[in-house]
Write a structure and sequence with these properties.
This protein is of the alpha/beta class. It has two domains: about 200 residues, HUPs (Rossmann fold), CATH 3.40.50; about 55 residues, no CATH class. Helices cover about 40% and strands about 10% of the residues. It is built from ten helices and six strands; from the N terminus they run αβαβαβααβββααααα. Strands 3-2-1-4-6-5 form a six-stranded mixed beta sheet, with helices on both faces. Helix 3 links the parallel strand 2 and strand 3. Helix 2 crosses helix 7 and helix 8 packs across helix 9.
């Protein structure tokens, strides 16, 4: 069951339609509600946890959903940051993963997004304009783990899930009509502390540096179709084996109307053959929207 705050009728004033006003004026959460942090391994959720340490807001759970396709530096960082959180008296970062439903009549067996794409001869859903990959491999594993944890702890109150989206990413909270998305899903209350605290990207970077850490690299699948040309080139230079795996996924897929992971514009396998002008034009016209799993 999902609910949505009804603040969009004609009787509601302009102020009440503002997402920040809505977030700050939501009904107070149940004081018995556990706090769970959705940790993506990138800048935003890292800054959010550091701010929570400084504010003395201790979560009950910190969950990192592993798609099996993060960059090696992201995996190293999650472990490093988890050790720091433990030293600060916070819980360890729990790793969760997608698992197929037992007893289901599935034709294919896979445990990672990469395996699914190779078996189905397809690309991640973002290449086709959807976001089911992030929902399946990021959101749902965390929701499943959280529900099981609440049952084991005999918790009745609706859990509060803290998500690291800052003030410069307000569009991620809005649907296609410009209204704020559902803020309670599957019995879990989503909260966005960075927005409520008025923190932007520069603030997030400063928070991380203030405790002596470098700003972590962007967290996303190495074969994510949302990667920019410059990020694909960087992947090819720093992690040629991962770049090659992405190209093999591309070559294995039944592309039909697509050229590759670059959607209708280009194939990742052809990036090396693009001229500087072609790269600049593609970069200028790329869609900068982030999928749900990017942090």
């Amino acid at each position: 069951m999902t609910t949505q705050l009804d603040l969009f009728g004609d009787h509601v004033d302009t102020q009440a339609k503002d997402p920040i006003w809505i977030l700050k004026n939501r009904p107070a959460p149940d004081p018995n509600s556990p706090i769970v942090v959705s940790y993506g391994g990138g800048t935003n959720s890292t800054a959010m946890l550091i701010a929570m340490v400084l504010k003395g807001i201790k979560p009950d759970l910190i969950l990192f959903a592993d798609t099996g396709a993060e960059l090696p530096e992201t995996y190293d960082w999650v472990n490093t940051f988890s050790d720091w959180l433990i030293a600060e008296g916070f819980p360890v970062i729990e790793w969760v993963k997608y698992t197929q439903v037992e007893g289901s009549r599935r034709t294919f067996t896979y445990s990672t997004l990469e395996e699914e794409c190779l078996i189905k001869k397809a690309l991640p859903s973002k290449a086709y304009g959807f976001a089911t990959c992030s929902m399946k491999y990021k959101v749902e594993p965390q929701q499943k783990y959280l529900k099981q944890w609440c049952l084991s702890q005999e918790i009745k109150a609706i859990p509060r899930q803290f998500v690291g989206i800052h003030t410069g990413e307000m569009s991620r909270l809005l649907d296609k009509t410009g209204k704020i998305r559902q803020m309670e899903q599957e019995g879990i209350r989503q909260e966005y502390p960075l927005i409520e605290w008025g923190l932007n990207q520069e603030n997030c970077n400063a928070l991380i540096k203030s405790v002596g850490f470098p700003v972590p690299s962007k967290s996303s699948c190495f074969f994510c179709p949302n990667r920019k040309i410059s990020e694909i080139v960087e992947l090819k230079e720093k992690h040629p084996e991962l770049y090659q795996r992405a190209v093999e996924m591309e070559q294995n897929a039944d592309l039909r109307s697509l050229k590759g992971l670059g959607r209708t514009k280009y194939a990742w396998g052809d990036v090396g053959a693009l001229t500087p002008m072609e790269k600049a034009l593609i970069e200028a016209g790329e869609n900068n929207k982030l999928c749900a799993c990017v942090d």
